[in-house]
Specification:
Blueprint lengths: L2 H15 L1 H10 L17 H13 L3 H15 L6 H5 L5 H6 L19 E8 L2 E8 L5 H16 L4 E9 L5 E8 L3 H12 L10 H7 L3 E5 L4 E4 L1 H4 L2 E2 L6 H4 E5 L6 H6 L5 E5 L12 E2 L44 H11 L18 E9 L4 E8 L4 H6 L13 H50 L2 H8 L9 E13 L2 H7 L2 H22 L2 E6 L2 E6 L8 H15 L14 E14 L7 E4 L1 H11 L6 E4 H7 L4 E11 L3 E11 L55 H14 L1
Parallel strand pairs: 7-10, 16-18
Antiparallel strand pairs: 1-2, 2-4, 3-4, 5-6, 5-12, 8-9, 9-11, 11-12, 13-15, 13-16, 14-15, 16-17, 18-20, 19-20
């Protein structure tokens, strides 16, 4: 099917539901195309797949959705000027419906690979008619219903009610649906009135030989389906057609019915398309396509008399230089003649013979079937359909074989002159479409990268709300039960004073890489880092009653992972302090620039104080957190009452280990240290700096610059910590 149908669905979904819904539907339907080229052919199952996915995403029933697609298509084609064809297809609704089967024939030059359905009208009355719909595609019944109603409304200001009387699926893959259309069929009354008042005028008699000369591609056959007479145009190509059954010589492509006498009489208002069963082979320049009783045939074109000029039949094709007798010469290759013909017409494709496919070498006739009462026969008045002059040449036809009383000759010549321009325009459109598809794929990749980066800074649910235009302050939410963890490096200021800035960056990156892996493992959310301070939370943004357990497991793994990290200045193993507290917080995004998801409340401050009042390589937890863990297999040791700045006296505990925990220590880190004993100081809090949570973020990592690799920040770091200490 062509992209015109798919693009109308694309536009409808985007307009009705938005770009994000269309993207979701594409992903669910496994459709790689962001948009569709109107003249490009796509798979037959694209529309059903998209429709099913759209029904699942939007919650709308599939029949209603297909109906809406059909309604939209009628309006959508107006963007490409096809509404002008629909407007002039018939004076009244009945005229449009009776000519509906021929509609796609008018578009065959723009869409040569079109596989249209077939329509047939019967049982017409002043209240409507019965419409037969046949198609090789299944699942488009409601799509057609929507189209019919919209055509009546848009072009004839007539309301059409469509009822499905019967739907049948045939074994050969054909779907036959019988519609009953109800509408005000006033044109039927007018036509019946005019028919009753008509009078028969005496007509001039016309001899049959004159009639057959005017229509050179006619076929006359009787009720027994035997061919009685063929036009001179067919006689020039085929022999012995007369007396054979017509369905044995030609196949019926349109309408989509069996080739029987009754079906021909019932569809006289339809366009018929006949295709010869035998492929036509050009093997010489003299003779005809002889159709034997066995069904074999060979084409020999009109002979060429030379006036002393040798022809191909005289033997040049096999290297014989002598001018031979045409009756004695064997059929030869006509590639040289075809090349000369293509050079003259400018219709030379790649290769000598592009009609290698037998289907392309069959003669196609399109026309009308008329019942002749006097003959008790049906006459098919047809016209050969040629895509280009090369095909005409290969099928043994010439311009003078076509009727001079209609536009057949003009259409063939004009179509050839315009085909090159149309092909070039189509190729350019397809190239642009390919580039657009590639750009859209690259855009998808970049958008995924952007989303991943955004979701690392802001929770996905919050980020999606911000994308929809919600104010940042509206994303704030109260979480009644969460557990927060703070950690920092023991003696970080002294370490920074002894190493270069790039070593500081490398050390922190190694530590944070380890910790980030642990957050994924233990289902906790990394809130932020402030210098060497690392903050995580469980219970927000995803609520869970096991928040304290997840954080406790995270803290224990953080201590285990420190044996992989060392102080670049001394080579000793780094040490950290960890503080944990549970309680209520308010979380959300505040501000406009550099938005970050922040936590607010006394729980945050208390957790920070647990860390600052702790000791190196210990996990300091509050009594609230201890209450969540005491029924679980954790080893807790009471520390006693501790004076906490801003809180007063608090009873706190040490989290030692998880009983029965056999957690492995195979962690992936870019900063591995040699195994060494943990030689730490007394583990007391460094008095030169105090770690406290602040929703206003600072940058402690300076990016390396190639022009200034030796820049130092030791004095700046020390000064910043002194200022923080003086404030507290």
């Amino acid at each position: 099917m062509y992209g015109l149908l798919l693009e109308s669905i694309n536009e409808y979904i985007k307009e009705a539901y938005g770009e994000s819904v269309w993207k979701l539907i594409r992903e669910r339907a496994l459709c790689p195309h962001h948009s569709f080229v109107t003249h490009q052919v796509y798979g037959e199952h694209e529309i059903p797949k998209i429709a099913r996915a759209a029904s699942e995403v939007t919650g709308i029933d599939l029949p209603d959705l297909m109906d809406a697609f059909g309604v939209t298509f009628v309006s959508f084609v107006g963007q490409y000027g096809y509404d002008r064809i629909l407007r002039v297809l018939g004076r009244h609704v009945r005229d449009f419906l009776n000519g509906l089967d021929n509609l796609h024939e008018y578009l065959r030059f723009s869409y040569p690979k079109l596989q249209p359905p077939s329509f047939f009208c019967e049982e017409e009355s002043s209240m409507g008619l019965t419409l037969h719909y046949r198609s090789r595609r299944r699942g488009f019944v409601h799509y057609v219903k929507g189209q019919l109603r919209q055509v009546g409304f848009l072009f004839y200001q007539t309301e059409i009610s469509v009822e499905v009387l019967r739907e049948t699926d045939h074994a050969e893959g054909l779907t036959h649906v019988v519609f009953r259309l109800y509408f005000n069929n006033k044109a039927f009354k007018i036509n019946r009135h005019n028919f009753g008042n008509s009078c028969s005028d005496s007509l001039l008699p016309v001899r049959s030989d004159v009639f057959f000369e005017v229509f050179p591609f006619n076929v006359v056959f009787g009720e027994d389906m035997l061919i009685r007479r063929v036009g001179i145009g067919l006689q020039n190509i085929f022999e012995k057609l007369e007396g054979r059954r017509i369905e044995e010589s030609f196949t019926l492509n349109r309408p989509l019915v069996k080739f029987t006498w009754e079906n021909v009489l019932n569809h006289t208002n339809n366009l018929f398309e006949l295709v010869s069963r035998l492929p036509i082979e050009r093997t010489g320049l003299h003779g005809k396509n002889s159709v034997s009783d066995e069904g074999s045939g060979t084409l020999m074109h009109n002979k060429v008399h030379g006036l002393g000029v040798p022809s191909i039949e005289n033997g040049y094709g096999n290297g014989d230089a002598a001018v031979g007798n045409g009756d004695q010469a064997a059929p030869l290759d006509t590639s040289l003649e075809l090349m000369a013909f293509q050079t003259i017409t400018g219709d030379a494709p790649e290769g000598f013979n592009t009609l290698a496919n037998e289907n392309d070498r069959c003669l196609t006739l399109k026309g009308q079937m008329m019942f002749m009462e006097d003959w008790k026969s049906v006459i098919f008045i047809g016209t050969p359909i040629m895509e280009n002059l090369e095909q005409m040449f290969m099928t043994g036809l010439y311009i003078n074989d076509l009727s001079m009383h209609d536009s057949s000759r003009d259409l063939v010549l004009a179509g050839t002159q315009q085909s090159a321009e149309l092909k070039l325009a189509l190729d350019q459109e397809q190239q642009k479409s390919s580039k657009l598809e590639e750009s859209m794929r690259m855009l998808d990749v970049e958008m995924k990268k952007t989303d991943e980066l955004l979701y690392q800074m802001i929770p996905k649910a919050v980020a999606d709300r911000l994308r929809k235009g919600e104010a940042s302050v509206e994303t704030c939410e109260v979480f009644q039960e969460v557990t927060i963890l703070f950690s920092d490096v023991v003696g970080f200021t002294k370490i920074c004073s002894r190493i270069t800035p790039m070593q500081v960056v490398s050390m922190l990156n190694s530590m944070y890489t380890l910790f980030d892996q642990l957050t994924e493992k233990h289902n906790v959310y990394k809130v932020e880092t402030i210098g060497d301070a690392y903050m995580v939370v469980s219970g927000a943004p995803e609520k869970t009653r096991f928040h304290a357990h997840y954080v406790a497991d995270m803290a224990l793994d953080m201590l285990r992972s420190m044996k992989h990290l060392q102080d670049p200045s001394t080579g000793e193993t780094l040490q950290i302090r960890i503080g944990v507290h549970s309680g209520m917080v308010v979380a959300g995004v505040v501000g406009l620039k550099m938005p970050r998801w922040c936590l607010f409340g006394d729980t945050v401050n208390t957790a920070s104080r647990m860390e600052s009042s702790g000791q190196g390589m210990h996990i300091h937890i509050s009594e609230t957190t201890k209450a969540h863990l005491e029924e679980e297999p954790y080893l807790l040791v009471e520390r006693g009452t501790v004076t906490i700045k801003g809180k007063g006296e608090m009873k706190t505990y040490w989290l030692k280990e998880k009983v029965g925990d056999q957690t492995g220590e195979a962690l992936d880190t870019p900063f591995l240290a040699n195994s060494s004993e943990n030689e730490s100081d007394d583990g007391s809090r460094d008095s030169s700096r105090i770690s406290s949570y602040n929703p206003v973020f600072s940058e402690d990592v300076i990016k390396k610059h190639r022009d200034a690799p030796n820049i130092t920040i030791e004095e700046e770091v020390v000064q910043e910590k002194v200022e923080l200490d003086s404030v507290t």
